[in-house]
Amino acid sequence: MATKETCRSELRSAIPQLSDRGLNSAAKWAAEQLMGIEQDPMKQTPLQTRFQRGSSSIRLRNRAVTVADSSFTPSAGLSYITTPPQAEVEEVDGDVISGDFYLLAKSYFDCKEYRRAAHVLRDQTNDKAVFLRCYSLYLAGEKRKEEEIIELEGPLGKSDAINRELVSLERELSKLRSNGSIDPFGLYMYGLVLKEKGNENQARNILVESVNSYPWNWSAWTELQTLCTSADSLKLLNLNNHWMKDFFLASAYQELRMHNEALSKYEYLMGTFTNSNYLLAQIAKAQYNLREFEQVEGMFEELLRNDPYRIDDMDMYSNVLYAKECSSALSYLAHRVFLTDKYRPETCCIIGNYYSLKGNHEKSVMYFSRALKLNKNYLSAWTLMGHEYVEMKNMSAAVYAYRRAVDIHQCDYRAWYGLGQAYEMMGMPLYALHYFKKSVFLQPNDSRLWIAMAQCYETEQLHMLEEAIKCYRRAASCDDKEAIALHRLAKLHSELGRTEEAAFYYKKDLERMDSEEREGPNMVEALMFLAQHCKQHKRFDEAEVYCTRLLDYTGSEKETAKSLLRGIRSARDVEHY
User: Which end of the chain is more exposed for a tag (fewer CB within 10 A), N or C?
Assistant: First the structure.
């Protein structure tokens, strides 16, 4: 890992270069990481101290991570190199008039007048001008594509509309690359165009070339990540060992559901970028996917303390509050983001979650639809809207929403799981099983998915109890927080006449309920079975313990327990004589 001073100077150099080319998201990301590098306490001003005050126990814990965590970096056959801050890739002020053209084009670009910007630069040949012209044309084509989709299908519809600028852009950028007159930003643009046209292998190679030449463009890394759909494809990338590679790998691991590896990478990066809110948010995401909701809630609370007007990632925070049924906290979060920016998709999604928790599913759907009008590729909104339609028993709408989510991202296990639920509720267990299998393939450590599969196997149409038992066993080994699997394993073994196996699982379930101090019908059922089983096998002392516990309940189980105790005493007397 490069030193803090090296990272700081490189980012300071990169931010104006990115901003000057209209790569605003990449510039914002770089600026956030710049402020995430902890300053030398001797050099800090009061303003810097106030901005970087978020040194909570979460951050302090992450400082202890050693360089050994970098072992997750796939070998590229290159030693670690520290790339010095680059000067401008290409200077335009050698020609004052060309510089004036660029300033005018950039002002049009900033006002989202993309075709005007491209027109101004039509005769400019330097690298910087060529990139801005190509990027402007690309964005103009994207804007027109969105307009065509709305005109033809409505804001939430599917369409075959395409970006009509891609063909000419590919032709021009391909020629520039073959002539060797293309810079790293032009390579990024070329990779983006190839990706949009479906030439994924070539796009991957071009983007690798771009990030190796200029590693500070986070937008290029993000596009490259979308083309890495497996751990094997990630290992095949011939990337230079720059510190930006660690950010990329951590993000890629997260996307590939390698959450523990992602956590290790992010905690390693925390050693340098101690105050990075981006890293804190990514660690929270990884913990969320591992269902560590208590830790996640604390991290998001810290994020809001550090950056009170932040909306990025707050939709995930709302999911945590929804899962924990924290209605008042979710209401406060919804009100807060609404006052910050009510027309952000994340804001609409948070408000939709709030109304869903209150049981107002119609209004929840309205807000999820609003989020999708603002961003029709907003994955969470499609999935959550599907959940709402399931609650409203509108299965056709639910299936449509889940299918749209899957179209956007085929590795979203929640959408596959939602499809399975919808088909299960429609009484089509074979279809449901197909989708549950897809979801469990993507998220094999989630007990809920294994339980859903098991319940499909238990239906009257399938009645494949052995397969159901296998699924419940997997669920039990995946930390079944809902405590469903052990009880169902005991019950199924009992139904199949396997009393020893049933007794084993009833006993494990009873131990778990005791440790969690839970009461309920499952406990009564377990005590009753174990009392009868122990009596039949003449383990009278053990049977007596279970019967005594049943005497604390009112109802038929108490009378049954008394009858069993009388039987135990009689059996003991017979044995005695």
Answer: C
